[in-house]
Amino acid sequence: MLFLFLLLQAAPGGADSFIKGLLPIVLMVAIFYFLVFMPMRRQQKNTKEMIKALQNGQTVLTSGGIIGTIVAVNDDTLILRIKPDNLKIQIARSAVTSVVNADEQGIKK
Predict the structure, then answer these.
(1) Cβ–Cβ contacts within 10 Å for residue 40, how many?
(2) Which pLDDT belongs to residue 12?
(3) Are 96 and 60 in contact (CB under 8 A)?
(4) Are residues 62 and 40 in the same domain?
(5) Which of 37, 70, 71, 96 is the most exposed place for a label (fewest CB within 10 A)?
């Protein structure tokens, strides 16, 4: 910012037109950053924390739309039990999109 100020001071007579031309571009970049990149970074951070905190007994939703309960947690994989036949499948941790609550499944306690 200091560099920009010194550049404007050194420019004879054309400083006003330079500011008027550069200001909209700077504002568009700032708005784009705050509306797109910051929420995307926040969402990636939350997803990474959720995947790291997965535990046995949690019900999860995979990217393929499968809802199952975690029975075993390995380094990079999970074993899910899927109802009604208690089928067990192994999936990658990165395939989990969210943890599902009992209320969201429509199960009454």
Answers:
(1) 10
(2) 57
(3) yes
(4) no
(5) 37
On the question of pLDDT at 87 being above 80, the answer is: yes
Q: Give the total residue count for the chain.
A: 109
β-sheet bridge partners, residue 90: 79
- Its domain, for residue 34, covers 2-51
Query: CA-to-CA distance for 61 and 81, rounded, in angstroms?
Result: 12
| Structure tokens, 22 | 């550069």
Half-sphere exposure of 19 (CA within 13 A, CB side): 13
Place of tokens 């700032």: 30
Going from the C-alpha of 52 to that of each of 5, 88, 91, 102, 106, the distances in angstroms are 46, 21, 15, 21, 26
Same domain, 62 and 99: yes
